Amino acid sequence: MSGARTPLAEPDRVPGPAPDVTVVVVAYDAADRVGACLDALRGQELGGLTMRVVVVDNASHDGTADVVARGYPEVHLVRSPVNTGFAGGNNLGLRTAGGPWVVLLNDDAIPEPGFVARLVGAISDAAHDVAAVNATVLLAARFRPARPGDSEGLLVHGPHGDYVADPAGEVRLVNTTGNVVRTDGYGVDRGWLEEHGRHAPDREVFGFCGAAVVLRRSALDVVGLFDDDFFMYYEDTDLSWRLRLAGFRVEHCPDAVVHHEHGASSRESSELFRFHDARNRLLVLVKDATPGLAARCLARFVLTTASIAVRRSQPAAHVRTRLRVLASCVRLAPRLLARRRAIGRSAAVSRADVERLLVRPSAEGPGTYRRVPSD
Residue limits of the Glycosyltransferase 2-like domain (predicted)? Predict the structure, then answer.
């Protein structure tokens, strides 16, 4: 059962004794931020664990690979000649990794000193069917409660109130404690924009977020790696869903904390984001969901696209993006359906049983996070 049949190829692994844990960081045009991530990894309190750091440079244009090579000679650097996206970049790193545990970490995430040891401790103490343990990912910015008259900067409307970014603020907001999938087919970050001190989630979560997670290598040997066709977004939801179908579970470690500069490498208002986010949501459903859920979500996307095109209720560029999404889904459909059949043949859990873990959309809807420029 695999994503895009990307094998865990032994010849690609780093020579020498395998460490207890390999940390994979995929970097793209990250010359101004990857150093902070790698400095924090240098400062990890490992408690006797052995750790190797692998950085995959995804054909950056800003000298990211040279920054890593000059400043961090202990890091194993993989230079990709092309940008393979988050999915393909992590696959390149995963194929180099030896040892039982692999940590994935975003290049714009700063781990606290005990992050790696706590994640590895959590998964090594967990039951063998736990394939992944997600960290607590907080937004890097600090916040204070909003006051009347606040109208610029980073403004947040969250489940617990409204906030403004403030370096002296005492409020930390959650980015994610794992991924959940809603009954309407959308994947969302659990805890998004909740106050950290008030977020008390269950230990188990539907899936992991690839920004900061430890994976059990033996589980990847069963289900395969990320699906290269996804490029970016929803690749972690797809892999989580496949793990669920194979009988594995995902948990969360509250004490393993990273601080994440959300959206540093791709802005959520961009066409790049809108295309991959919408398309990959549909691809996950085609591969992994029951026929009923997949068909309902695909039909809704088609009807909504037709409606906004006729009513001109959204900019023409958004309609063109949605049409590109549909065209790409049609192009990829034959191989996605072949992967779906392969997943179904080896599944240990039925698709219907996995879908019982999906959650209903919140009546309040997701929180909002926006930058408002000063005049």
Answer: 22-135, 204-262
Looking at every residue in the chain, the average pLDDT score rounds to 90
Quick one: what percent of the chain has pLDDT higher than 70?
Answer: 91
pLDDT tens column, 146-179: 988 877 777 888 888 899 999 999 999 999 999 9
Residue 4 has pLDDT above 80, yes or no: no
Asked if residue 354 is part of any domain, the answer here is no
Q: Provide, rounded to the nearest whole percent, the portion of the chain with pLDDT above 90.
A: 78
Supply the range of the domain harboring residue 91. 10-260
- CATH of residue 76: 3.90.550.10
For residue 364, tell me if it sits in a domain.
Answer: no
CB count in 10 Å sphere of residue 350: 12
